[in-house]
Amino acid sequence: MKCYLLIFLMFSLSSRAQNQFILFDVEFDYTKFDADHALPNKSHYYVINDLINPHRPSDWNAPVNYRDGNVHIRIDVKEKPKGSEPTKWTLCYIPNKGKGNGYGCTGTELYTKEGVYDTEVSMHDFWENESIIWSEGIKQMDLVIKDDSGGQGHAHKRADHELFFPTKVRISMVQVPAGEVYDASILPDVAINSFSE
To answer: In order of start, what are the domains of the chain with their CATH numbers?
Structure first.
């Protein structure tokens, strides 16, 4: 009886997580030079082309409802300058088609030292999430390094920019559809920047 119950629970857990997907999983070094020369916007790191999952859905409403789910954000801060300056990365969804502002952004946890930081955010609880036409899909993600002062706190603008650069981070976003619970096993440590069927 215990064996059947265990099998049932394992099946239930795996079936609940079957629709989750990694939107991106990138590890990169980032310097003041990189921030100053990022185009078209400074302090940006662009998740485009083969860095973003090519198998992401074209419609985030159906047949699987990602629009009403959550996004699990994980940042592994591997290297950070001394000084414990509060830092975060704003993570912006750039849609194929937008309205109003034309894009929306969530973000990592604010951090002051190296380490791993996880957070989960409702897809309805971040800035300008309604400016994205989710049925048209996402074309890229823009990652922006900032201080703790708010929306315009781009790190490259700081006179004391040496408190932010150079840095090395691994940032991952996992899309969890409505009704599912995040499954940490979806992010194997060996699968950076690789997507499979």
So the answer is: 19-180 (2.60.120)
